[in-house]
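On clarity, I found the account of how folds are encoded harder to follow than it need be. Since the whole study asks how a given chain folds, the encoding of that fold should be made plain. For illustration, here is how one protein appears when written out as sequence plus structure tokens:

:::
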Amino acid sequence: MAAIGIDGLGKRYGALAAVDGVGLSVREGEFLTLLGPSGCGKTTTLRCLAGLEKPDAGEITIGGDVVTSVPEQIFVPPERRDIGMVFQSYALWPQMNVFQNVAYPLRRRRVKRPEVQRRVDQTLELVGLAALADRPVTRLSGGQQQRVALARALVSRPRVVLYDEPLSNLDAKLRAAMRVGIRDFQRELGTTAVYVTHDQVEAMSLSDRIVLMKDGRVQQVGTPRDIYERPRTWFVADFVGYENFFDADIVERAGDRAVARLDGGGIALRCFGGPAAGRGRVRLCVRSTALSVVPADAGTADRPGDRTNTVSGRVRDSMYLGGQIEHHIEVAGTVLRVRGADPDPSGRAVSPGDAVELRIPAESIVVLDADDEAPEPATRGKQDNLDRVGSP
């Protein structure tokens, strides 16, 4: 039995469909993350699951019990859903100290005093606040207050814990430590977790599976590795950091192997699989870190008889990024981004103006459906790394 079931969930705010036909199944003990840009519907989905929003369509079950059903007019209030929730805001009681805030859910359930003490002590130790148990929450930093909120959600051992961007107010070092703590605690207790974030690092490091959303709809569901290495749409590829995109035609195919000819320059690249069967229009994408660049003369000397997926270009610009360097390489009227270690471990550094050879591993190329809608420029933001030479 699934710990959580969501079927045909819909929520509108006037003309805006914040959630549009979402369906999900969360396994017992699973850590599932709803990931996506602002306004994609992830938080509204979570709030419907918590009972903080009443959907306009669909059904939600928790542990096999129907907690929301629009057709059957069933709506179980939040306090009867056996969930814990960590909000983006702290939502602490200012008149209570740290211990009292964390203990409150247990006392509401009339848990015996020794067990309250044990559970609160254990949870405060996890979040790094054991030494501050007696301190008023009004005398805590923002990060400390958020950790109190996290401890309060976990302390009652609910069957489902919901997280609404709980680490957004913590500094980077503490955020990294808390990611480990949240994951370890969830595994220890075996609780089911649904986590909302726009932070890909959080999603990748915490999750058993990720649900990537856009415009109120699910775009892809998969393990972190599936999402990262095998995106199914241009939007997913762009969101998880693929920077270089090409329009192309499949001109040869043998099993899962194919040859794609790029628009404009007549360049042919070997690639694997993809959603398009046979021949026809496709879109290719590849990460900047998957590409390698060497001086033109070094490339010829290195592999004199092998130019598979090797193209000639010229360095247009180079940027130092602290431990990495990013080159913009002009290839047949298109500028591609290539990112690698600095200094180059091969010792063959390149500079703006240099003629180079660019290698594009076939196994690193993701083949997408040509009919897939490209992301809007505002969505892609800093990820928009396909520049046309001479474009504004």
